[in-house]
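Lab notebook page, bench 4
Experiment: in silico fold of construct C2
Operator: M.H.
Input chain length: 499 residues
Purpose: comparison with the prior construct
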Amino acid sequence: MTASRLAAGVLFASLTACAVGPNFQRPLAPAAAGYGSATVQGQTSSAEVHGGDAQRFVTGLDIPSQWWTLFQSPKLNHLVEQALKGNPNVGAAQAALRQAHELYSAQWTSYFPTIQGNFSGTRSKNAIGTIANPTNLPQANPYYNLYTAQLSVSYLPDVFGATRRQVELSRAQVESNRFQLEATYLTLSSNVVVAAVQEASLRGQIAATERLLELQHQLTDKVQRQRALGTANDLDVLAQQSLEAQTAQTLPPLQKQLGQTRDAMTALLGRLPSDEPPETFRLDELTLPSELPVSLPSKLIEQRPDVRQAEENMHVASAAVGVSIANLLPQFSINADVGSNALALKNLFSPYTGFWDVGASLTETLFDAGALLHKKRAADAALDQAADQYRAAVILACQNVADSLRALQADADALKASAEADRAAKASFDLAQRQRTLGTISLVAVLNAEQTYSQAELSLVQAQANRYADTAGLFQSLGGGWWNRTQEPHYEQFSSPGK
């Protein structure tokens, strides 16, 4: 009766006691109303070229889960979907989430007792000449059988909340892995969009360079004819040929970058270089989103997967402190056994063969040279580390948004200036060619105008691409709209040989 009362008392205490250690509280949201001098109002400037439309900033505008569709490119939509299905980093993050969930489920079972069944049968020989018969029965034959069937029950009452803190820790790890998966989706989709923009930019620069080479080749032929007529000299021919060669020299690096960008795109899709996608991209096939969201810092920390992951990591560290404190306190256990012993298998469950026992124990570490205390202090330090890492994640998130807002404003102004410079350079070059035909200016002046126009063409393409890339960067810095997704992307693995 004493043992059963003790067991009941320990069980009651475990159900009514509070868990030791800190109760996790979500950090307060930043009180900042904006992003400092990067906070924008209204809209950007515009330019009369493709991709030069003004972009309007809308505070609090929600972000669609498939934000890349705002660029209105079916080819881009298809590639992002393929990347989310085929990239191995997605599969790894999904597997990590499944693992964390199974470990949480396993930890949750600690709330329940463990029941084990056991059956054993032994045959023994008794040394009857020196030791009494263990069966207490008259027996001339020293051989006998013993059969035992038994159920064992063990339970660790959660008196100080160690089990609850462990379950809380495991659950926080599940959430941390979930946000890691969201961060993987966001990073991957953003990388695909940026790679597509980079490809379009390089194709535009290559096309502009090839147009200039064709034009310069025509000018070289023209100067050579002028030399044959005596209106130009060898120096003029060599200067034009040198300029044409300099322009041709810039083409291979652009082609190399294009090839490497295509390889990077293929890798993002989870494919080998030999399985390059057929889709190609040009800037005039992409539409620049006209309305851009701007989330306040207090809302941003709810949207950024990396910030939410840092928060859950802090939750993990907080629960670990509770576990370390509980380990310093006495540990309770309840054990019970019930079963039957018989010399014959047929008598195993007959009357008078049963046995049982029940008991409870309390264990306290009296000396461990301070090991548990140091582990508790280490848990405190880990919590401080996680708190600072969370703060760093919040600062980085706000910095990313501020940088994106500054970039979009500057990109719009740069594109406007580049468009004006390109028009002026083109007009200057055309005028220089006409004046050269009339003989009113030197060939050097034409070459200078030609070189200025060449640089303006390339700068215009780069300025157009920057607006698209930085627009994608803004969506990424704001979290990408994962909270509006209703279905998880499905990951497709490589099929193994023989399967």
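Observations: Residues 495-499 have pLDDT under 50 and may be disordered. The first strand starts at residue 56 and ends at 59.
Next step: discuss at group meeting.
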